[in-house]
From TrEMBL:
A Pfam family matched in the record: ZW10_C
Example GO biological process: mitotic spindle assembly checkpoint signaling
Complex formation: Interacts with NBAS and KNTC1/ROD; the interactions are mutually exclusive and indicative for its association in two different vesicle tethering complexes. Component of the RZZ complex composed of KNTC1/ROD, ZW10 and ZWILCH. Component of the NRZ complex composed of NBAS, ZW10 and RINT1/TIP20L; NRZ associates with SNAREs STX18, USE1L, BNIP1/SEC20L and SEC22B (the assembly has been described as syntaxin 18 complex). Interacts directly with RINT1/TIP20L bound to BNIP1/SEC20L. Interacts with C19orf25 and ZWINT. Interacts with ZFYVE1.
Domain ZW10 C-terminal helical: 494-648
Key words of the record: Acetylation, Cell cycle, Cell division, Centromere, Chromosome, Coiled coil, Cytoplasm, Cytoskeleton, Endoplasmic reticulum, ER-Golgi transport, Kinetochore, Membrane, Mitosis, Phosphoprotein, Protein transport, Transport
All residue ranges annotated as the Centromere/kinetochore protein zw10 middle domain in the record: 48-285
GO annotations of cellular component type: endoplasmic reticulum membrane; RZZ complex; spindle
Compartment(s) where it occurs, according to its Swiss-Prot or TrEMBL record: Chromosome, Centromere, Kinetochore; Cytoplasm, Cytoskeleton, Spindle; Endoplasmic reticulum membrane
Designated name of the protein: Centromere/kinetochore protein zw10 homolog
Organism lineage: Eukaryota, Metazoa, Chordata, Craniata, Vertebrata
Lineage top rank: taxon: Eukaryota
Domain Centromere/kinetochore protein zw10 C-terminal: 342-472
């Protein structure tokens, strides 16, 4: 009797639990009552679910296409503020349905499902698609929320526009659905009453605020410090947006996630600036190396002229001519520096590297006029850019740097160009930077040795490859022996011409790329490798007939005439003559090679005269053992040869 006097399943459950706790009661009847209670409870929940579905109706696009703009435009939300009347049917009010769901503990699940659909089909699309505009339509028994498409010039909406759209959605939801109080015992509130807006806010706000930050506020962070003042408008709009949601009870009074993020714009600006700089730098590092620009002392990137500390002047970039009007710079006293001191000699570098250095200057210039926090972040960002170059470029372009001598030369120049700027980069900006950097080691000089080593090692690796190819070609010359044999002579002649062709090709590839001094040293080293190998092979022969000597001399003559022509560091042919005449300066074995040619054509007396008791020019290039070996190979064993050998000591 007590059980059937309950007014709702919840009270019935309490009465039943009370009876089960007493001793002496028939358990079978209690179990039957419990089963009946469960059936009736589920029946009530089912009917309440039906009422909920009538109250909130979604018209959604097919699930496979739900993320596209076209599909989102098909989404609609229908709120039946007064459910459709049917004949002879009593319709419960919205508050009654919601209260019943709350009592049965089902309201949380219903709101959670509604909130997820609201996020997926209404709120997130409004944030992601700037061209979406919410449209409301109110009819006697239904309220409709849908979208319309509006063509925009910009790809992204401002936070103010997004906030206005989101606020409109919540205002109409608050008016037609969320402003309904329900009793929620145990929620920690004074009277146990809470509005639907509060419950929905607890379920949605964390995900919604993250979406607003990542897809709206992050994009609004300026990339230029000059626009930071304009960001106050975004901060004010964010504060108004949170205030409006709190007024509708969607947010708690102590919730300020969006406003905190917006107010921390200085830190976000520095982080975004650093991220953009790193991304731009990485794009430059992974671009093609062979796109080059010519660098000369009067055309290289010149440091921007910085404003005096404490002034509001904007930095300007001047040409070297305006910064250095005369050919010398007065340092005080009698010491003077040339205007091109610490400038890289004329060469070619990758245009991407020039842009990378310009990016570093621009970032440091912005750091010099920033707050302490931003300044330190931007300064460290520039250091990270150069350290990233050190790691990325040799790895990303590894195969091309190994195979293509021109790219190896350009990479060498790139590293030297960066190292040259790193010498003074920190010093130029340190005095204009906040004290936090002035008092510390704000420098890039520690990176210079690493960049120089990086460039040198890459170029030396290419030099070793070229040396290996030269020696491989000369190995097919059959040791320059038995030149009276036609096949041997042809093989030696072919090897000599292949080496000269290789050197000429390298000379053209490196022409106008390497600095002249580096070019001449590199070509001189490779030519010296070839000459040293030829001299060693010929000097090691045990027998050289007169015909062999004549043919060896003719081969050496080809080298003597053609080798200087591989020195073409400049595009203008007339200007290369000077460097072709200076071959002995760059090729250490050049004079040794010429003396070998003299020996091949000389008689015994001429060789002895050239030796001059170890004081002649021949003694400067060959040891006594080498000269004796050549004499034994060239001349028959006679008393004259013995006398000559006796004088070589």
């Amino acid at each position: 009797k007590e059980c059937f006097s309950v007014c709702c399943p919840l009270q019935a459950q309490k009465r039943l639990s009370s009876l089960e706790s007493r001793r002496g009661f028939e358990l079978k009847i209690l179990k039957a009552l419990g089963r009946e209670l469960m059936v009736q409870t589920q029946n009530v929940i089912y009917h309440l679910g039906q009422e909920w579905q009538k109250l909130i109706v979604w018209k959604l696009p097919p699930s496979k296409e739900s993320s596209s703009l076209e599909a989102v435009l098909l989404s609609e939300l229908h709120l039946h503020t007064v459910p459709p009347q049917e004949e002879d049917t009593a319709v419960p009010s919205i508050a009654a349905v919601l209260q019943a769901l709350a009592v049965l503990g089902e309201l949380h699940f219903k709101l959670k499902g509604f909130g997820q659909l609201l996020l997926q089909y209404i709120l997130k699309p409004l944030i992601s698609f700037p061209s979406l505009e919410p449209v409301t339509e109110e009819q006697p028994d239904v309220f409709i929320l849908r979208f319309k498409f509006q063509e925009l010039a910009l790809d992204k909406s401002s936070p103010m526009e997004v906030f206005d759209k989101i606020r409109l959605v919540f205002e109409v939801l608050h008016k037609h659905l969320l402003n309904v109080p329900v009793e929620q015992p145990g929620e920690g509130r004074k009277d146990g009453t809470v509005t639907l807006a509060e419950l929905l806010g607890e379920l949605l706000w964390e995900e919604l605020s993250d979406c607003l930050i990542q897809n709206c506020l992050v994009n609004s962070i300026p990339t230029d410090s000059s626009k930071l003042e304009q960001y106050k408008e975004v901060i004010e709009s964010t504060a108004e947006f949170e205030k409006a949601l709190k007024k509708m009870q969607f947010l708690k009074e102590d919730t300020t996630a969006l406003l905190k993020y917006a107010c921390n714009v200085n830190s976000h600006f520095a982080n975004k600036k650093c991220r953009d700089v790193i991304m731009a730098a990485r794009r430059l590092m992974t671009s093609e190396i062979h796109n080059t620009v010519k660098i000369t002392p009067d055309s290289s990137v010149t440091p921007p002229e910085l404003a005096d500390p404490g002034t509001g002047d904007h930095p300007k970039i001047h040409s070297p001519c305006s910064l250095l009007p005369s050919e010398t710079v007065n340092l005080g006293g009698e010491r003077r520096l040339h205007q091109f001191t610490l400038c890289l000699p004329p060469c070619r570098i990758s245009s991407s590297v020039q842009q990378l250095v310009e990016l570093a200057y621009h970032t440091l210039r912005e750091a010099s006029s920033s707050s302490d926090l931003r300044c330190v972040q931007l300064f460290n960002c520039v250091r990270n850019v150069f350290q990233l170059f050190y790691e990325v470029v040799p790895t990303y372009h590894k195969e091309n740097l190994q195979k293509l001598p021109q790219l190896a030369a350009i990479h060498h120049n790139n590293c030297m160009y960066i190292a040259q700027h790193l010498l003074t980069l920190g010093h130029q900006f340190r005095e204009r930077s906040p004290s936090v950097l002035c008092n510390e080691a704000a420098t890039f000089v520690d990176l210079v040795p690493g960049f120089r080593k990086l460039g040198v090692e890459c170029f030396l690796a290419q030099m070793r490859v070229q040396k290996g190819e030269i020696l491989e070609r000369l190995s097919s010359a059959r040791n320059f022996s038995n030149m009276d044999d036609g096949e041997n002579y042809h093989a030696a002649n072919k090897a000599i011409k292949q080496v000269l062709h290789q050197l000429k090709r390298l000379g053209m590839v490196w022409q106008d790329v390497l600095p002249v001094t580096v070019y001449c040293k590199a070509m001189g080293t490779l030519l010296n490798t070839a000459l040293a190998e030829i001299v060693t092979r010929i000097a090691g022969l045990e027998d050289i007939s007169a015909e062999d000597a004549e043919r060896l001399y003719s081969l050496c003559r080809i080298v003597l005439e053609e080798a200087p022509r591989v020195f073409t560091p400049l595009l203008e042919e007339a200007e290369n003559k000077r460097y072709q005449e200076e071959v002995p300066v760059y090729v250490r074995k050049w004079m040794t090679f010429k003396k070998l040619m003299i020996i091949l054509q000389a008689n015994l007396q001429e060789i002895v005269d050239q030796w001059a008791d170890g004081k002649g020019t021949l003694a400067e290039e060959f040891s006594a053992a080498e000269v004796k070996s050549l004499i034994r190979a060239l001349f028959q064993n006679t008393e004259r040869r013995a006398a000559a050998l006796a004088k070589i000591k």
